Amino acid sequence: MMQHFATINDKPVTGGASFAVLNPATGGEAGRAPNMGAAELDAAVAAARAAFPDWSSRADEALQAACAAVTAKIEEHAEELARVVTLEQGKPLNGLGSRWEIGGAVAWAGYTTGLSLPVKLLQDNEQGRVELHRRPLGVVGSITPWNFPVMIAIWHIMPALRTGNTVVIKPSPHTPLSTLRLVEIINEVLPPGVVNVVTGDDRAFNIGAAMSAHPDIQKIVFTGSCATGQKIMQSAAPTMKRLTLEMGGNDAGIVLPDVDPQGIAERLFWGAFINNGQTCAAMKRLYVHESVHDAVCEALVAFARNIQVGDGMDENTVLGPIQNRMQFDKVSALAADAKRRGKVLLGGEPGEGLFFPPTIIAGLRNGDPLVDEEQFGPALPVISYGNVEDAIAMANDSSNGLGGSVWCSDIDAARRLAGRLQCGSVWINKHGAIQPNAPFGGIKASGLGVEFAEEGLQEYTDIQVVFA
Ligand code: NAD
């Protein structure tokens, strides 16, 4: 199978050993990635550190032009990258799959290119002139998960580059191949050392942990689970790293009595099942008012029943397999438990290999594991409620606070409820619709800081105030 290279200082590196990356649809090898250790990580950090003085001192227009060139490169290789994502991640080429993911990466890269953080004049009078500058940090370490490997890599890399930082990125061992290729491609238009990539299987040596403690990395931007994010925060403390942590979610959707069940069914489905539920801000619990509960469930099941599940490489596939065995086992166990507690309306039984059909289970309540835990898979619990105050209390009864949604015909009433949900983003009559001009991040245990927009860009800088 194809051996992929890492790029350090614009040079291909294998690091000697390699590990297999599996295609979740077939169980076969999608390719092999370098299994790197401390020496390769140090080399990547040293390259990024050496590239920093020149890169960070470039004029803002030059940084912007370089970011535009990076965006164009990704667009040029969009189809190739989409195929690698499908091969290693499992999502379909079409629909909200890998072509959509790469399209999103291009859109985010382009939007971030156009952002800027001009000097802010705080005071200019006879007492003096006070200017607020945004200075780059140095080497940014990016650690990414396996659900949207290219899009999340771009969310991390582009704001770092745009603000004059250099990067060492480490993808998930489950999906390193698309990031290896992405970094190779963008190095065609960047100076050596500005973006480097390291990969490993997290067994003998945990690269992410070493990055979090590395003295020559100034910031970690991390997207992944809450447990790992907390470990990063701990190991980053001695070196006072800046942190952006985008962690897990257990987003609630609240359906009010005045909805049109047929009208919202398709959006409810995609709010929960996008990328097979393996999406941080997917709807993971659905609270439905008792007066419309049966009608909403019926409409949702009618839509979900016709979804074609299969190998993502098949152009007709709508949902692929679960990405890896550990996640498949977790979803299977949560669904099996929920079957004993509630009523299965659709699916519920694991399929062949890593395939798991869209599953909807009603009759559940807070305290049931499928409701309380982040399933990160295609199994949606439905909880009936009688009083909207109870629904809000149940939605907020979680250590997570990433996203939430309110489904309602009366938009003003929905807006009032939105303000009472404890989460970083609230959508009305949709779920999970993030966009590059709106800051995105979790509250409570779901994270620290935000990504996207000017507020996200600021997190790649320190403030320096100049008093004259
Ligand atoms: P994970 O935490 O297991 O792994 C994420 C990354 O961290 C991987 O690259 C992994 O190799 C690395 N890592 C492992 N141990 C580490 C350590 N000790 N120190 C530093 N890095 C380490 O997460 P995952 O299973 O890949 O992703 C699924 C999780 O990601 C879900 O909880 C999901 O909600 C979350 N997620 C959040 C967002 C968001 O924006 N909030 C987006 C996507 C996914």
Structure write-up:
- α7 (207-213) packs parallel to α8.
- The protein has a seven-stranded mixed sheet with strand order 14-15-16-13-12-18-19, sandwiched between helices. A six-stranded mixed sheet has the order 9-8-7-10-11-21, with helices on both faces. Strands 5-6-22 form a three-stranded antiparallel sheet, with no helix packed on it.
- The mean pLDDT is 98.
- 38% of the residues lie in helices and 22% in strands.
- It folds into two domains: 2-247 and 446-467, 3-Layer(aba) Sandwich (Aldehyde Dehydrogenase, Chain A, domain 1), CATH 3.40.605; 251-428, Aldehyde Dehydrogenase, Chain A, domain 2 (3-Layer(aba) Sandwich).
- The chain is built from 15 helices and 22 strands.
- It has helices at residues 38-56, 60-76, 78-89, 98-114, 149-162, 177-187, 207-213, 226-236, 261-273, 293-304, 325-341, 369-372, 388-396, 411-418, 453-458; strands at residues 6-8, 11-13, 18-22, 29-34, 120-125, 128-136, 139-143, 166-170, 195-197, 219-223, 242-246, 251-255, 283-289, 343-346, 359-362, 379-385, 400-401, 403-407, 425-428, 443-444, 447-448, 461-467.
- It has 468 residues and is α/β, with parallel strands linked by helices.
- The structure holds nicotinamide-adenine-dinucleotide (NAD).
- Nicotinamide-adenine-dinucleotide (NAD) binds next to α7 and α8.
- Nicotinamide-adenine-dinucleotide binds next to α7 and α8.
